[in-house]
Write a structure and sequence with these properties.
2 helices, four-stranded mixed beta sheet, 26% helix, 92 residues
Length: 92
């Protein structure tokens, strides 16, 4: 089994990558969670939930980067919290 570790020099964005902010994800993980991974048979997904419900369930698009997926997740969390609009791309 492979193990991963994060070194001390990995703080901040890598060279050539502009700093970005995901404020809604940052706020949510104080009382909820996000999950990014593979869900069979759907494929690659990102899910955000709090202690009451799923706020957003996104399917990663073809050619979409992880950063783009996380930005969409951050926006979907805002939509759920501010407008009571819950995004579900998994259970169609």
């Amino acid at each position: 089994m492979a193990t991963c570790s994060v070194g001390e020099n990995t703080a901040g964005p890598p060279p050539g990558v502009a700093a970005f902010s995901l404020p809604n994800i940052a706020e949510l993980i104080g009382h909820g969670e996000i999950t990014v991974g593979v869900l069979e048979p759907v494929g690659r997904v990102a899910v955000a939930s709090d202690d009451r419900s799923a706020l957003a369930m996104l399917q990663r698009r073809k050619e979409e980067t992880l950063l783009q997926l996380l930005i969409r997740l951050d926006q979907a969390i805002a939509k759920a919290c501010n407008e009571d609009v819950f995004t579900d791309e998994i259970n169609r």
